Each structure stands twice: as C-alpha cells, then as structure tokens.
C-alpha cells in the first residue's frame, strides 16, 4: 500500500489549508484550558512545538505527545459537525479513495478480526466512529450471522450506514446510555487521537462490553518512525483533529488503569517509510544525506525491508491494541 493511494497529496494539502481557515473561525485560543497528560494523568510536561496556534507538549513521565492547553469538548463537536473542512474531507478527500480504502484497509481489518476472535457464533459487534460503515460491511460479508451496530455521531454518515442495513446509534459514544454489557466486540479505528478526554471514552467503551468482551483499536503512535522523523512537519500531527499521540507503553498504562487486560499491542503500520519519502521527495524536507540516499537511490526491495524492520521492532507510527474486559469483572 502507498500513501498516495489512500491520501492524495494535493487533495490533502488543500484540505489542510481549509482546516487552517476553520481554526480561525471556530476556535478561541483564550478559552483553552490546561490539562494533565491524557494517558497517565501527570501534570509535568515539556513544550515541543506550536502548530496553527495549538501547542504540543510531551508528558515527562510517559512521553505521550498531546495538545495543551486544549479546546473544549463542545467546540470540537461544533467544528466536526459543521466546518467546511469537514465537509471537504468527507466529499472531496474520503469519497474518491473510499473503494481503495475498503480494499486495502477495511477488508484486511475485517479478515484479521474475524480470525483473531474466531467469530463463528451470533455476537454483537459495534464500530465506534463507523463513518460510511465500510468496516462493518466488510465484516458482515465474512460473518453475516452476527449483529452489527454502527456508532456514528454525524447524521449524514449515520444515514449512509442505515441505508446499508446496519443498526445505527447516531451519537458520540460518550453521550450514549443503556448499552452497558451489550457488546462482544467494540472496534474503533483512528479515533483515540481525536478525543478531548480519551479516558472517559475508554471507560464508556469498557462499560459497554460484556465481561470477556474485546475492544479493538488503532491509533497513532507518537514514538513511531514517521512521526519522530518528521516531528512538527508531520502531517499526522494535525490540529485540531489530532490531540493525543500515545505510545505502546502509555496506551497500555491508560487502558490498564481503566481495568482492561491488554491482549496484544503492536505497530503493524505499512506507510512509515512511504510517508517520510514523500516528504523528502515532494516537499523538500531535509532529514540528512543518509535518508536522501534511501529516498532516491536504493531499490524498492530495500525500502520494503526497512518498513518490515520498523514493524518487526514495533517502531511504526500506526498502532493496534486488542484489550479485554476481564471475565470476572461484573
Ligand atoms: Zn503521561
């Protein structure tokens, strides 16, 4: 998989320009509030850099990179529900690459999950932030006998999920009630990095699982190859969307403090090198002579081996966690 297949460079750059305009219109920086580390709760942090007015800091204890001070939950909700950049993201950015994303991202996830959990009986699966419902559709194709619930706050996307025959809860997980102990599996892809209060979100997800149920999530790893290499130039570090960059250790701390048992935590990313190479070749980023040489001179096989090395040593910026609500916990 290549970055250009799932994230067209020129469209993405246009989107980032729109985001910058929206930030001026939707956010009042004087109203932002200081907060503690979203992973371990420590208040001590080191300033790192500022991006379109948002300040990023690193937790002194667990090295989670996060926005501090932070905009209010309500401000973020308004931004996500009505800003022109969000509409652009849905219609101009996501829709043209939806088929490729289905094939390269959502289908492999559905295959992985159906095998990992040996899904062969009637269970309840919920996808939090279901978007267009692509993941649940793919999972339903493999194991149609289960019940699938799309949890999606955008009314436009919730309607799309409904039209696909999925059960839909049109709400933020944090606002939902009455689903305690209902789900065998909850999934959430690339959402944790967006959240105002990840711990509250995870507590809610925990309460919605049956004892013995699983939460499967993917998020960005702040200590991964492309993020640490590019740092403030990384387009993954994009406010106001991406507020939290956990790492393998800090996401474990956060989830274990809530009561989860970590079944697997790894970084199975595919794009680290491709993203870094794209920035060196197309956007003039200078990471030194060695990485210039790798970008321009070495074979495709050499680059593939580099990406394999990144993944095999859990150094990718794309992180996956499978966590369980312990059986004895009722
Ligand atoms: Zn911390």
Based on the model shown, name its key terms.
seven-stranded mixed β-sheet; single chain; globular; Rossmann fold; about 20% strand; about 325 residues; binds zinc ion; alpha/beta
Structure write-up:
The chain has 330 residues and is of the alpha/beta class. It has a domain at 98-324: 3-Layer(aba) Sandwich (Rossmann fold). Helices cover 44% and strands 19% of the residues. It has a 7-stranded mixed beta sheet with strand order 6-5-4-7-8-11-10, sandwiched between helices. A 4-stranded antiparallel beta sheet has the order 1-2-3-9, with no helix packed on it. Zinc ion is lined by residues 37, 39-40, 42, 59, 61-62, 64, 250.
Q: Which SSEs are present, and which pair or pack?
A:
Blueprint (H helix, E strand, L loop, with lengths): L2 H4 L2 H18 L18 E7 L2 E6 L5 E3 L5 H10 L1 H33 L7 E5 L5 H9 L4 E5 L3 H9 L3 E3 L13 E7 L8 H11 E12 L4 H6 L13 E2 L2 H11 L2 E6 L5 H12 L5 H8 L3 H13 L5 E7 L6
Parallel strand pairs: 4-5, 4-7, 5-6, 7-8
Antiparallel strand pairs: 1-2, 2-3, 3-9, 8-11, 10-11
Helix pairs in contact: 2-4, 4-5
The site of zinc ion (ZN) has 9 residues, from loops.
Structural class: alpha/beta
Count the beta strands.
11
CATH homologous superfamily assignment of one domain = Vaccinia Virus protein VP39
The fraction of residues assigned to DSSP E strands is 15-25%
Q: What level of helicity do the residues show? A: 40-55%
Give the biggest beta sheet.
Answer: 7 strands, mixed
Assembly status: single chain
- Unreliable segments (pLDDT under 50, ≥5 consecutive)? none
Characterize the overall form. globular
Bound molecules: zinc ion
**Whole-angstrom Rg:** 19 Å
What is the overall pLDDT average? 94
Between the first and last Cα atoms, what is the distance in angstroms?
Answer: 42 Å
